[in-house]
Amino acid sequence: MSTITLSKANRIISAAFAKGKELELAPLTVVVLDAGGQPVSVQRQDGSSMLRFDIATGKAWAALALGMGSRKVGAIAVERPHFFQGLSGVSGGRMVPVPGGVLVRDRKGAIIGAVGVTGDTSDNDEACAVAGIEAAGFTPDAG
Amino acid sequence: MSTITLSKANRIISAAFAKGKELELAPLTVVVLDAGGQPVSVQRQDGSSMLRFDIATGKAWAALALGMGSRKVGAIAVERPHFFQGLSGVSGGRMVPVPGGVLVRDRKGAIIGAVGVTGDTSDNDEACAVAGIEAAGFTPDAG
Amino acid sequence: MSTITLSKANRIISAAFAKGKELELAPLTVVVLDAGGQPVSVQRQDGSSMLRFDIATGKAWAALALGMGSRKVGAIAVERPHFFQGLSGVSGGRMVPVPGGVLVRDRKGAIIGAVGVTGDTSDNDEACAVAGIEAAGFTPDAG
Amino acid sequence: MSTITLSKANRIISAAFAKGKELELAPLTVVVLDAGGQPVSVQRQDGSSMLRFDIATGKAWAALALGMGSRKVGAIAVERPHFFQGLSGVSGGRMVPVPGGVLVRDRKGAIIGAVGVTGDTSDNDEACAVAGIEAAGFTPDAG
């Protein structure tokens, strides 16, 4: 299994910011977590509001928790709200179930971390996470 | 009252994994709790995602908490969400109300523990828990 | 970086139990955590008391948290209790700072998980963790 | 009041890392918080252990909480442990009272954030925080 080095994490973030600039998005916060859910690198653009670090982390953490993109976690939360309530409870309230949390897979398909983005619409946030992961040479799984 | 020995708990888990293999399921995490809700044995198959231990525990814990399979706890959560919200609150967020948490009863019908399984669909998870409990000579109560 | 497979984790635990039997120790609980602090395998021997899972986990988690064996974390706690109080706080009370939590290193020296043992004296607990890790072909770091 | 822009925060971190390299320190984690205690930028060097983000944050947060460097918070914790216990309690366990959390002051002396560093000895951690803050043109207050 590979790991996400700090150098790769910063590459992910700079590419995610570049995508946000290209799409003229609102200020973003981007978090890169390792496979165990700990931050490798975090950057919050000027003007990104107070809770953005926690939101971005909650998206990436949700993806790692269930082994699927936070978009799919969101679908579970909509279809089976009681299930998501339970998941949220056992996680200590750490999951944000909307698009923008994307798994990072290495060449063999192993999950080596996750990226969380917040600041614009959830769909745009996700697009930036995907762009960042691809720019660093990994495979995004927004599932 | 009987208790679930470590030997029996490991028998439950190996049989649950065998059922999962037979049904060609995704990687599973299986937790065996004693009557007090403490782990006797826990095993997470390779590739089972980060929060799986907590999810499996939350299903088994919910079953013990109310004395019924987590399938029935899930029905309560769907029919009376305000009730489940209260239950979740007083439990400190420890309950996951979907199938896959199954009570273990001895020959006299006493509850001696619970098994929680997660990784595939909730119905498949439950089938593995039932198979494991039966293989160890106990009576499953999936509620 | 390697990972601790379920098969390897169970090998660690059976060897730790064998060491406990050889030394005629009290019933043990052994926890194997991955590099992110999540359980891979957990087994509690018959007669091992209620909180043993949490204690074993707390030792292994403390080792991973600071990148040193829980024996060394314990030395910090004794020498600088205010520092340990802070560490305990930011960890959400998850650290048990006594011997028995041992890092698992792969051939290149990378930390790939940790083993926590509890049930007998802390020194004996640690000896079992070390024996288990060695039996599985990894390098223990009880530091 | 000035604020710490993302650009300035990254300047602080790169200078802190440069100081660590110059002093041949262990891998570091550096956190830059704004005046409200929220992360602006966080970077964890390869090999920096699991809890390092929380430790670095706990040092910087402690500095902001009391308006003094975490070195001085540590002195309080040693001299009046009952007081620190109360502070830790009301903060929800968020304070790590050892050197390495340094206030960032602007030219008028206003507190505009704090930097937390962990990974080597507390004294070395603090030296890196100070070097980073100075390199970005702000005034460090290590208290």
From TrEMBL, chains A, B, C, D:
InterPro entries: GlcG_carb_metab_protein, PduO/GlcC-like, PduO/GlcC-like_sf. It comes from Pseudohoeflea suaedae. It comes from the Bacteria. Coiled coil: none annotated. SUPFAM superfamilies: GlcG-like. Pfam families: HbpS-like. This is Heme-binding protein. PANTHER family: SLR1406 PROTEIN (PTHR34309:SF10). The lineage of its organism: Bacteria, Pseudomonadati, Pseudomonadota, Alphaproteobacteria, Hyphomicrobiales.
